[in-house]
Write a structure and sequence with these properties.
Helices cover 22% and strands 24% of the residues. The chain has three domains: 185 residues, no CATH class; 330 residues, TIM Barrel, CATH 3.20.20; 43 residues, no CATH class. Strand 18 and strand 19 form a beta hairpin. The strands form nine sheets. The chain has a nine-stranded antiparallel beta sheet with strand order 18-19-20-21-23-24-34-30-31. The protein has an eight-stranded parallel β-barrel with strand order 4-5-6-9-10-11-14-15, surrounded by five helices. A four-stranded antiparallel beta sheet has the order 22-29-33-32, with no helix packed on it. By secondary structure, it is α/β, with parallel strands linked by helices. It is built from 13 helices and 34 strands.
Length: 727
């Protein structure tokens, strides 16, 4: 009876999305400890130890190894407490990452104000690092290095200051974003922390972090821009709440200091006549300070006044990033590559920030498909969330791929250090495969999925605990594995043509005032869908030039197909709930989206499925073309959830997050392999999370067009296809 009750519970976990086939959810648990003798092992992409021949460098605008071979990052974030696993767990975690082809870990929120912070607890300042916590970090970094996994150290992410730090209004600053751009004390503390961490010697690798070749990247600040704070009205000086959230206004004292600094800068920068004209525009008398603009005043502000203030904030950012870069490189001798911060707000322009961060070695971006919208209570605490919960394949012009494509700058490596389809989006299976393919097409240099985990491994459970963890999600983890072949192995070719965009300083400033309808490129006349057909880069932020190409890509009406200029990728945008992305290379092929309705034949892959929405990626494991490969990996994914997850009526939020174990919607149907060279036998092996066989192999049936086999039983998101060739 208990077994029947469990089955009934699992089947009823989630009602299918509108119009979806009723495929029952089934348990599938990721076991991160089981890494021995896998049938599919992506650690072949890693060269161990990381940095064995020297540091990652840059050549022709891309990462290279010391022997000048192209290097791409396929990484994950570790956030907060997850950065500090125990000595018993660290080797297992590192082995698990390597098995999925992950070659870099971004250490995020090491400076958080919590029990797992690097700062000593019990002090009234954040000016001393905890030796025990450092040792735990060191050991994990050493274990990662052993397996060929590099490190990305984030310096300033979630530091909340204490009384002894000497920071004015420290209790009211939250993560103290933006004040670092103009406050001397905070800038000093940033440098002090960088010096303490980066000159620390890791006893398990034998090198200080500033010289450690396994440290590939050091990031200065996270999602932090004073220009963004300006156009988001977070420089008003109205915050009076202690311990505010992440995105908070500054206090009155800082607002007054910023206004004073602005007026001093005006006197140093402008001549008497220009300053007098600016006073007239602002309506203030001689000798009175010129007030700073609020967002409500942007529209009617004269261009000269608006541009002058925008340039002031850009000047602050430029000086901060330039000064910190010089300090790390010249004073500390840091050998890792430096990133400033990410272009992360795609509802507004990112060009003013990029004009400053481009002083650093790496350009970086963040984006999420339908990031949760948190609902605050009167005190600003989270009460709940809503999400759009719609498929990206139906909205290509606003896809994560297109949003990220606005940021890369010619001659600079481009990384995406945070990306996800946050849980509980029911279409998340589309995200990572599409990203891997188009990132290779756009010729980007690194991807970090956010986040592997927030907690220490001893607290990892077999469920999705919040919106962003990928570790317990079978759908996302298996798509990370499949995506490694598309991105790291280079199965998807770079675009044949690159569209270059250039902007005059005036255009950079004016982009701040453009409406959100111009997102994400904020370049009137430029079709966002161009990024699905050609590569695109910024050539200059100092000189205006028309795009090197940029014909109208998007036709009028509902349907369209955007075919990459290599012919390997196609984004089919039909009517609502008909979108589909196809990937067709010799070694990897895929159908992603509403494939049941799609008539999109591929050279070697055809499918018939019951699921309305799913992703199927077929890739060669031995490097041969699919037609001649002896081993293939099939990743077939749909929805993932927790046992007992319950949606609201609109399917835009959860009324119950559910419990263990995690469950998946198996992709049920038939897969056909076409154009396959003569074979003696094909066996299809369902795999568990440790890439070990589940049950007996499934034999493939020979048909007139090739070979056909069923999938969906037992419930699994991935299969090994083993082919025995005829002599």
């Amino acid at each position: 009876m208990r077994y029947l009750q469990l089955v009934a519970c699992i089947v009823g976990i989630l009602a299918p999305a509108a119009g979806a086939a009723a495929v029952a959810m089934q348990p599938f648990v990721m076991d991160w400890r089981d890494n021995a003798a896998p049938l599919v092992d992506l650690s072949l992409f890693l060269e161990a130890p990381a940095g064995k021949d020297g540091h990652i460098a840059i050549k022709d605008g891309h990462f290279v190894t010391p022997d000048r071979k192209r290097f791409r990052i396929w990484g994950v974030n570790f956030t907060g407490a997850a950065c500090l696993p125990s000595r018993e767990d660290a080797p297992l975690v590192a082995a698990h990452l390597a098995r999925f082809g992950i070659n870099c870990v971004r250490f995020h929120f090491l400076d958080a104000n919590g029990p797992m912070s690097l700062f000593v607890r019990g002090r009234d300042d954040t000016r001393q690092l905890d030796p025990k916590q450092l040792d735990t970090l060191d050991y994990f970094v050493g274990e990662l290095k052993k397996r060929g996994i590099y490190t990305d150290l984030n310096l300033n992410v979630g530091r909340t200051y204490r009384k002894g730090d000497g920071v004015r209004d420290y209790e009211y600053l939250g993560f103290a974003k933006v004040v670092n751009y103009f406050d001397d004390q905070v800038q000093m503390l940033h440098k002090e922390y960088a010096q303490q961490l980066l000159t620390h010697r890791n006893p398990y690798t034998g090198a200080e972090y500033r010289y450690e070749p396994a440290v590939a990247i050091v990031e200065l600040v996270n999602e932090n821009s004073i220009v963004e704070a300006w156009f988001s009205d977070r420089l008003l000086g109205k915050n009076t709440q202690k311990n505010p959230g992440t995105w908070t206004d500054i206090t009155a004292w800082y607002a007054e200091e910023l206004t004073a600094k602005y007026n001093r800068w005006l006197k140093e920068t402008l001549g008497a006549q220009a300053l007098s004209e600016l006073r007239q525009m602002a309506g203030v008398a001689e000798g009175q300070p010129i007030p700073r603009l609020t967002k409500a005043q942007f529209k009617d502000a004269p261009a000269k006044r608006f541009h002058t203030e925008a340039i002031f904030y850009m000047h602050l950012e430029h000086d901060y990033f330039g000064g910190m870069y010089k300090y790390l490189k010249d004073d500390l001798g840091v050998t890792a590559l430096i990133a400033g911060t990410s272009d992360h707000n795609h509802y507004n322009t990112g060009y003013p920030l990029l004009a400053s961060t481009s002083q650093c070695d790496i350009i970086d971006g963040h984006v999420y498909w339908q990031h949760p919208n948190y609902i605050p209570d009167p005190k600003g605490k989270r009460q709940g969330f809503t999400i759009g919960n719609t498929p990206m394949v139906d909205d290509p012009a606003n896809s994560t791929v297109v949003q990220l494509s606005r940021t890369p700058i010619a001659g600079k490596p481009y990384t995406v250090s945070e990306i996800n389809h946050p849980f509980p989006n029911e279409y998340a299976c589309e995200g990572f495969g599409i990203l891997a393919a188009y990132a290779a097409f756009q010729d980007w240099d690194g991807i970090f999925f956010y986040t592997f985990e927030h907690k220490v491994p001893s607290q990892w459970t077999a469920k999705m605990p919040s919106h962003f963890e990928v570790r317990p999600d079978p759908v996302k983890m298996m798509n990370i594995a499949a995506g490694a072949y598309l991105f790291l192995r280079g199965d998807v070719q770079p675009a044949k043509e690159t569209i270059y965009r250039s902007y005059a300083p005036e255009e950079v400033c004016e982009s701040i005032r453009l409406p959100s309808s111009q997102r994400p490129f904020f370049t009137p006349g430029f079709d966002p869908a161009s990024a699905l057909v050609h590569a695109t880069r910024i050539r200059s932020l100092n000189v205006a030039q028309p795009p090197s190409a940029g014909e109208k890509i998007t036709p009028e009406g509902g349907g369209a197909t955007y075919t990459a200029d290599t012919g390997q990728l196609a984004w089919h945008r039909g009517q609502k709930r008909q979108g589909c992305v196809t990937i067709e290379t010799d070694r990897s092929q895929a159908l992603i989206g509403f494939i049941r309705q799609a008539d999109k034949p591929l050279k070697n892959l055809a499918v018939t499925v019951e699921n309305e929405f799913c992703s199927l990626i077929l890739t060669s494991l031995d490097g041969k073309p699919i037609a001649r490969a002896d081993r293939l990996l099939l990743v077939a994914t749909a929805r993932a959830a927790n046992t007992g997850t319950k949606w609201n009526d609109k399917r835009t939020s959860l009324t119950d997050w559910g419990t263990e174990p995690s469950v998946i919607e198996p992709v049920k149907g038939f897969v056909a392999l076409k154009g396959i060279a003569p074979v003696g036998q094909i066996e299809v092996i369902p795999l568990d999370s440790g890439a070990k066989a589940i049950g007996k192999p499934i034999p493939a049936e020979k048909t007139a067009g090739g070979y056909r086999f069923p999938i969906g039983g037992p419930a699994t998101p991935w299969y090994l296809v083993r082919i025995t060739r005829t002599p």
